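Page 47, continued from p. 46.
Same chain as before, 137 aa.
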Amino acid sequence: MLGAIHALIASALPSAEVKRNLAKPERVPPGGLVIVRDGDPGEPEVTLSPLTYIYAHRIPIEIAAYETSSETRERVLDDMLAAIGAAVASNRTLGGLCDFVEAEAPATEDIETAGARAVRWADAVIVAVYGTTDPLN
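Result:
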């Protein structure tokens, strides 16, 4: 399922680099950067007949952008977030892997480093609700 989230975001942002569990980078590539973290599925609800573990898995994503020659970093980040939101809304079940997927509102901030361009970061969460008979699979 995490691979499907990664693929969904990568297809929504073809010019950005989309990585999984990357340490905080020293630079942001020109098209932007998205880091998909594995997150924590949390404690499941359990039904017994048939045995099913139901998770609401919170998957953190970090999105980074800086200004281009024609757009501010806020606008670039807004466009990236809108593309991710549209991709999630168009595939709420990840092709049948989940019961429901939704994105939560992001928190944003500017990150400045001496001698480098200011980068606009957003921390958001994608919540995937799914049931499984095997919590390890």
